[in-house]
Write a structure and sequence with these properties.
Blueprint lengths: L2 E7 L3 H12 L1 H7 L4 E8 L16 E2 L2 H5 L4 E6 L7 H10 L3 E4 L2 H12 L1
Parallel strand pairs: 1-2, 1-4, 2-3, 4-5
Length: 118
């Protein structure tokens, strides 16, 4: 069985929802992926000690975005911080490192979509 490692940038309302959806739907996701599991490997946040809407192992939490972007095992980076910067810089770095990106950041895509897709 293959495990697809994911790194999150942000753990606010949307990030918490992503964590919950991945956990609640782990078996269905695994079936759709032909037996591969999706696992959150790291989560970068601004404040490590802030109360969270979901319980995650403290070892997953870091305030160092480079720990997510530079982790060679992380294949997918999910950008959940919003706004244009530093989201743009983080997404560009992740792309440069060969990682797949997931974002719903409309401001980022509207202002920098051409650059990101290039």
């Amino acid at each position: 069985m293959r495990t697809i490692s994911v790194g999150l940038l942000g753990l606010g309302n949307v990030g918490s929802g992503v964590v919950k959806l991945l956990a609640d739907n782990a078996e269905a996701i695994k079936l759709r992926l032909g037996g591969s599991a999706v696992a959150i490997r790291r989560i970068a946040v601004r404040e490590a000690d802030k109360p969270r809407l979901v319980d995650v192992p403290p070892a997953l939490i870091t305030t160092d975005v480079a720990a997510v972007l530079g982790d060679p095992e992380i294949e997918i980076v999910v950008e959940l911080i919003g706004g244009e910067e530093p989201a743009r810089s983080y997404v560009l770095e992740a792309i440069a490192r060969g990682k797949h990106i997931v974002t719903a950041n409309k401001a980022l895509l509207a202002a920098h979509g051409d650059e990101l897709f290039a």
